[in-house]
Amino acid sequence: MDLGSMGFLKALLVAVYALHPYFSHAETAPNYSFVHESTTAPPVSYHDYIVVGGGAAGCPLAATLSETANVLVLERGGSPYRNPGKTDKGNFFLTLLDPSPDSYAQIFITEDGVYNHRARVLGGGTVINAGFYSRASTEFVEESGLDEALVNDAYQWVENKVVFKSPLLQWQTAVRDGLLEAGVLPYNGFTNEHINGTKIGSTIFDMNDHRHSAADLLEYSDPKNIIVYLHATVTKILFTTQTVGSRPRAIGVIYEDALGEKHTAYLTNDSKNEIIVSAGAIGSSQLLMLSGIGPRSQLEPLGIKVVMDQPMVGQGMADNTLNGLIIPSPNPVELSLLSTVGISLLVNYIEAGSGLNLAPSFGWISKFLLSILDQTTIGSFFDTRLNGGIIVQKVARPLSTGHLELRSTDPNETPKVSFNYFQEPEDLRKCVQGMETIINVVNAKAFSKFRYRTISTQQLLNVVAALPLNQRPRHFDTASSLEQFCNDTVMTFWHHHGGCQVGKVVDEDYKVIGVDGLRVIDASTFSFTPGTNPQATVMMLGRAMGVRIQKDRLS
């Protein structure tokens, strides 16, 4: 298909998508009357529910609770609507690498020497991720204890607002056909279900490549019953005990605005009112510790009063690993992010992207890569966008886990986080298998249009091995041994989970064990990430638990 017919096809698809209700969500930024800067907040306020963290779980949760109760949402970041083009599909890397103080992604380095990011914006990780939308496996839903009908209704509630069918142009088609050649079978076509084989999933980018996020789910809110404060950093959850030895009860929070002024938000006097922490895998564990719920051995040296000695807070932290190849292309590539996925259940997931924007300051990489490839005839790898793409693999359900430790009592400082990547040999085996699949895809006949014949897959491995992708040491056999390649070039898939796991820190209703009036609802409660990418299930969980809490309140 030539470029002219591609342009016609895209125009036709845009027209079809606009007419079809599944694809025709509003593209204009919502004008929320209830979202304000925290500097405008009163010194003291009272609410039925206080949701800490306006992210993938917090936004749908708060929107649902506002249907019948008064809700306060405290988000430490700003609004994604202030500069909506910033999060368009092509700017994925630019958003992640933004070093400004109010960037949407807070950069940190794990104790394992891997660069990582925490979302810091209304909408959370759904504002900075690669946009792929896919539901959880049946197994995950069964283990969660949630009613299947409620789960399906909650997924649909999310999908009606922010989910679109992924476009399938040339690069993603070549990856799909390469996966099938490589034996990642069967082909399941387009589906949101998590099933073995190769499929096309959904996305939160619309056909104009504009991002939609969990923040859009606040459109479901009753504006009379909700208020959202931005740049509101919660420093501590407040507790009271009725009698000596009785269970502590959460009664409020202290938070700071952008100017450093302190505010206090209390729960109104009703035993069914609650504080719900949805600050993410790192933020939720951190806040519980800062508030006195965590390992005594960590809290007391920092001068934190122990409310409850809970050694499991911050434990079981895990992160799905990312390894892959960068492939220069002799032919033009479309802008794409994670449309096609190859699923080998319980082993790995293969995903790809192409044509992404890069800052001019990254021009040195193009020259560097060409020198590694020893090529003078392939032209620049990119000018302002990638002239090629990436194919990456994610280890499913890593067995390796780590932990989180506070560095200080400053809530703005990311704690020490260790994920212990590839500590378990089984994780390394899965990575090697995934890299073998990627190499087979790149060598597939279906992918040949996007390969320079003069560049071998060994040279592509050499390129990745030479790039400063992390702060881990390189070895003489980094590029010649796939085991060493996985260890030395590991990156994050940004799918952090654990730290407040069900059965260890929270019960099956996500209530913090041993404490009244406090829940944690987000990915910190997971023992493994659901599906290929967790955002669908985290948003679903926020909606589903909001419905359950509502029913309990009214019963």
Automatic annotation (TrEMBL):
Residues 1-26 form the signal peptide. Its cofactor is FAD. FAD binds at E75, R76, V121, V234, W494, H495, P534, Q535. One of its GO terms (molecular function) is flavin adenine dinucleotide binding. Residues 119-142, 280-294 form the Glucose-methanol-choline oxidoreductase N-terminal domain. It comes from the Eukaryota. This is Glucose-methanol-choline oxidoreductase N-terminal domain-containing protein. It comes from Gossypium stocksii.
